[in-house]
């Protein structure tokens, strides 16, 4: 059956069943060939019935009807994976590109070294208001140091600035290539998530233009820095959103640039903008390019010194110059000392000669006499002469002294010249340091941590715009030469194709395409441009199946894989047993465990898992490549995700809201009924009705609180179940205020955000909320999309009863404060006990609830069952409530109170939690008058039952609610009353059994 109709889905309006049921059937009926049509048709009917839980005649689909059978002729259909498959077919007969070979192998080789000279030099920034955070900057440095053949895995939890990081990566690579006067870098951002790609494209359109002509594009009809390469179906949407695009080289942005009159207009507009910046007049565009490059180089030289690596380099250079001057000074002094010492020895030696005796007499002196005389002289002077020197040869000694004096004088002269040169060089260096110090004076009033921020929004942003205009000039120069009859390359040549991309990259450095489209755009006559993409950036890589990412990786020199393993995993289109069969076919059946571990499995892997596996095996610490600063959610919301999956490493950067209209982590306890469609998906009509009616009631207040924005921009409603999403959408279509509201399964919010996210948990009664712990990513995605408020609507008893780490955390955050509870909703009269015949009344305020409570204790004949998560002595003393309870007990009525075992505990200090004084007094007072008080773990019902005749359910905390003050009117409840209604009586019995069973289970655990 087609995968697009089976849960789990990324949306989908028709659900036929669950993919797990199909996989089970296919594994149990593993057959590829059938004997005849009848046996094949029996197989198909069996599969259909197993998955849909109905025959083809019995199948019912909400909002649809079964029509007459149709025969659909097999017609060619567009295949999104066509280009991807062609690429893999081509590569099957070719040497595997290096980057793909590393990515696709479970074997882990040594990590390629980084380029240190680039690693610390951040040269550019785009955003005029905000600089990079510390973790973003550290990862940027790693990207700039990447060598060809390397893949960098970046863990990017939601709201941590992944798009800003991508923007900065592209900008820095663009400026680096401009400084080196190379061709522009070809940077492709890809993903299977269209929303993620559009976010990146929009980021290169919004906030890039500045407040003056310098920080604006100097070419007409060029806006932003991103070019999207979409499918034809997306073109109209991109036009409406004013995103630059191309579907081929004849349409979209390239079509505009290729018009005959565009070049003349572009040159005129560019030169006008250049002149406005005070540039000299130029006759040749090449001279403009050279001048702009000089401006860029000067801009980068100014701020590079503030980078830690540059500071260290300058410190080393300063130390080297000072050391060189000191060494030369020492050498000059040493040489002067040697000259003086040797001259003194020479003079003493000459004075010791028998000068008075003639030359003839000296010649008659014996050699031994001369040697003794000289030895005595040198010994008396404390001088040790070289052992090889003949002390009996006066003429040799004379030559020795003359030679060394001459040699030292020459060395002294050279040393003095070098010393002067070193002094001059050091003086120039000190002057430069002084200039730098004066230029950096603007940064003295801020801490070192903020210097980089100031540099980002100042000099680095300026460098980005100099590079922008440099590339614009390069593009113009190339076009003008081509127009003048420059060298033309064959359209079918690799060089021609590469030059087209380089021309585009000179104007739009960020190219965007889905993983399916990348092979389509980077090929030549069905031959891929392997290794042509300089950097491939895979965004939301946790959702990208490993085989989809591999195609783009085959075309790239380097890859940066950005994602989060705790987001919604890719939907596998292949059953596990078929994947195992494919591996057997390829001779890989002995490597199952390796493929599972390294994230390369089609059914369970992702590009993020595969890249992260390699990186960890190579010894890179996970935190070294993790974005840590979180900007989307208020601290109270992101704290859940931080504790649930991120080990407390995230740093919340937003401040708590000073004014609120909704709690940060809130809940509405909605008692309802879960229904399971035959196809397996759950839905809860009561819950859907409550959510939609509550949104309608609060819409005006919410829109006003958020400055008049429409509800579609403020609220999203998500649920784990596709059937519930359908129910919610169907109900929302009836309300004009909720037009275009985002409603769906968790997948619809992947890559998106809203101030308020409502979570419809669906499960109720004795159903189990297995989604809480079975898929940690589900709640993580849902919560992390809420900027200000995350609200759970559902049966909180079921939600609270879940076991496991995630369930415990959810309870701790949702039930941390009574103020988190939402009470101002209405339960639908007809849905809770549909067709029961019982009389139904809405209770809408505190006074009405209190009046009914007193009446129950007066009118009860046998038993009163009351469920109140909190108990307070203050509430019991209001309106003589405790007295009414005591009188009922004295009349022989059984009064049974269920309350939560933890919600009333005081959690201050490091000691064991104890009951709050009000709660302790309240429980003691109830016990004293004969009430049975039973504690249940994590109960959140607010239920009141009288005999088998009255049932009240809603939001009112019977034994703790605030009786006075601004919130006392916000209560909602439904009262069902009838002396002879079997449906009502059965429901009361069911509730009594449920609470008693839960109490007995908890007793055993204690």
From TrEMBL:
Keywords: ATP-binding, Helicase, Hydrolase, Nucleotide-binding. GO terms for molecular function: ATP binding; helicase activity; hydrolase activity. The keyword ATP-binding applies. Residues 622-796 form the DNA2/NAM7 helicase-like C-terminal domain. Residues 855-979 form the Phospholipase D-like domain. The keyword Acetylation does not apply. This is Uncharacterized protein. It comes from Acanthopleuribacter pedis.
């Amino acid at each position: 059956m087609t995968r697009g109709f089976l849960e789990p889905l990324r949306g989908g309006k028709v659900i036929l069943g669950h993919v797990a049921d199909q996989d089970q059937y296919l594994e149990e009926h593993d057959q590829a060939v059938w004997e005849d049509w009848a046996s094949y048709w029996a197989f198909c009917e069996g599969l259909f019935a197993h998955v849909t839980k109905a025959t083809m005649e019995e199948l019912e689909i909400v909002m649809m009807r079964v029509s007459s059978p149709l025969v659909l002729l097999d017609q060619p259909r567009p295949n999104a994976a066509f280009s991807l498959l062609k690429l893999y077919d081509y590569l099957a007969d070719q040497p595997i590109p290096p980057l793909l070979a590393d990515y696709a192998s479970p074997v882990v080789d040594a990590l390629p070294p980084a380029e240190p000279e680039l690693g610390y030099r951040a040269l550019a920034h785009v955003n005029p208001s905000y600089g990079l955070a510390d973790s973003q900057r550290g990862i940027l440095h790693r990207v700039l140091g990447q060598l060809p053949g390397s893949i960098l895995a970046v863990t990017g939890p939601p709201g941590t600035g992944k798009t800003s990081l991508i923007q900065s990566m592209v900008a820095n690579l663009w400026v680096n290539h401009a400084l080196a006067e190379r061709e522009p870098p070809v940077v492709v951002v890809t993903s299977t998530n269209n929303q993620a790609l559009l976010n990146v494209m929009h980021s290169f359109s919004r906030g890039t233009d500045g407040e003056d002509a310098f920080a604006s594009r100097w070419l007409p009809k060029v806006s932003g820095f991103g070019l999207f390469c979409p499918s034809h179906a997306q073109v109209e949407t991109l036009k409406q959103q004013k995103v630059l695009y191309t579907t081929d080289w004849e349409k979209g942005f390239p079509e505009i640039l290729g018009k005959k009159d565009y070049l003349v207009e572009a040159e005129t507009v560019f030169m006008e903008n250049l002149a406005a910046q005070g540039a000299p007049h130029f006759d040749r565009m090449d001279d403009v390019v050279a001048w702009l490059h000089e401006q860029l180089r000067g801009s980068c030289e100014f701020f590079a010194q503030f980078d830690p690596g540059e500071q260290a380099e300058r410190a080393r250079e300063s130390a080297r110059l000072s050391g060189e001057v000191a060494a030369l000074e020492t050498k000059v002094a040493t040489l002067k000392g040697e000259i003086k010492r040797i001259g003194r020895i020479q003079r003493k030696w000459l004075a010791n000669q028998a000068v008075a005796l003639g030359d003839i007499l000296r010649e008659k002196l014996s050699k031994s006499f001369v040697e003794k005389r000289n030895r005595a002289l040198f010994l008396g002077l404390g001088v040790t002469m070289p052992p090889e020197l003949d002390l009996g040869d006066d003429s040799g000694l004379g030559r020795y002294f003359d030679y060394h004096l001459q040699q030292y004088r020459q060395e002294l002269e050279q040393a003095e010249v070098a010393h002067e040169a070193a002094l001059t060089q050091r003086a120039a260096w000190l002057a430069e340091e002084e200039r730098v110090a004066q230029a950096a004076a603007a940064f003295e009033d801020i801490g070192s941590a903020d210097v980089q921020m100031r540099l980002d929004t100042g000099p680095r942003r300026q460098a980005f715009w100099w590079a922008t205009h440099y590339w614009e000039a390069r593009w113009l120069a190339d076009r003008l030469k081509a127009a003048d009859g420059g060298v033309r390359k064959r359209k079918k040549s690799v060089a021609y194709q590469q030059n087209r991309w380089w021309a585009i990259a000179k104007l739009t450095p960020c190219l965007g395409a889905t993983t399916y489209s990348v092979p389509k755009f980077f090929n030549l006559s069905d031959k891929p441009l392997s290794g042509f993409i300089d950097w491939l950036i895979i965004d939301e890589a946790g959702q990208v199946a490993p085989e989809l990412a591999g195609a783009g990786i085959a075309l790239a020199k380097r890859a940066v894989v950005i994602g989060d393993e705790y987001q919604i995993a890719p939907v596998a289109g292949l059953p596990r047993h078929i994947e195992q069969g494919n591996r057997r076919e390829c001779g890989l059946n002995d490597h199952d465990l390796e493929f599972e571990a390294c994230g390369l499995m089609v059914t369970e892997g992702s590009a993020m898992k595969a890249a992260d596996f390699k990186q960890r095996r190579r010894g890179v610490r996970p935190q070294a490549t993790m974005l840590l600063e979180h900007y989307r959610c208020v601290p109270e919301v992101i704290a859940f995700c931080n504790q649930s999956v991120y080990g407390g490493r995230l740093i919340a950067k937003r401040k708590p809201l000073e004014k609120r209209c909704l709690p940060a982590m809130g809940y509405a306890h909605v008692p309802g009924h879960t229904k399971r469609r035959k196809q397996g998906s759950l839905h809860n009509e009561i819950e859907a009705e409550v959510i939609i009616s509550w949104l309608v009631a609060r819409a005006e207040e919410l829109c006003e609180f958020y400055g008049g924005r429409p509800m579609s921009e403020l609220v999203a409603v998500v649920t784990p179940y596709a059937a519930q999403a359908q129910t919610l959408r169907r109900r929302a279509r009836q309300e004009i205020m909720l037009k275009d509201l985002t409603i769906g399964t968790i997948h619809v919010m992947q890559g998106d955000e809203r101030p308020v996210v409502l979570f419809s948990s669906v499960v109720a009664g004795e159903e189990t909320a297995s989604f809480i712990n079975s898929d940690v990513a589900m709640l993580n995605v849902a919560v992390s999309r809420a900027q200000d408020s995350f609200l759970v609507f559902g049966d909180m008893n079921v939600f609270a009863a879940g076991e496991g780490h995630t369930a415990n955390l959810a309870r701790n955050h949702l039930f941390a404060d009574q103020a988190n509870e939402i009470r101002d909703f209405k339960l639908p009269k007809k849905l809770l006990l549909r067709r029961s015949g019982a009389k139904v009344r809405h209770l809408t305020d505190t006074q009405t609830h209190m009046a009914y409570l007193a009446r129950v204790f007066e009118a009860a004949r046998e038993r009163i069952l009351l469920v109140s998560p909190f108990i307070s002595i203050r509430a019991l003393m209001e309106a003589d409530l405790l007295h009414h309870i005591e009188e009922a007990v004295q009349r022989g009525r059984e009064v049974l109170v269920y309350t939560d075992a933890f919600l009333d505990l005081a959690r201050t200090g490091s000691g064991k939690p104890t009951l709050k004084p009000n709660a302790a007094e309240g429980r003691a007072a109830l016990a004293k008058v004969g009430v049975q008080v039973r504690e249940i773990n994590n109960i959140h019902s607010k239920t009141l039952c009288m005999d088998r005749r009255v049932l009240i359910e809603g939001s009112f905390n019977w034994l703790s609610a605030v009786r006075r003050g601004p919130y006392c009117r916000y209560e909602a409840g439904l009262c069902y009353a009838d002396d002879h209604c079997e449906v009502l009586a059965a429901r009361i019995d069911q509730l009594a059994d449920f609470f008693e069973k839960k109490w007995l289970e908890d007793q055993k655990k204690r």
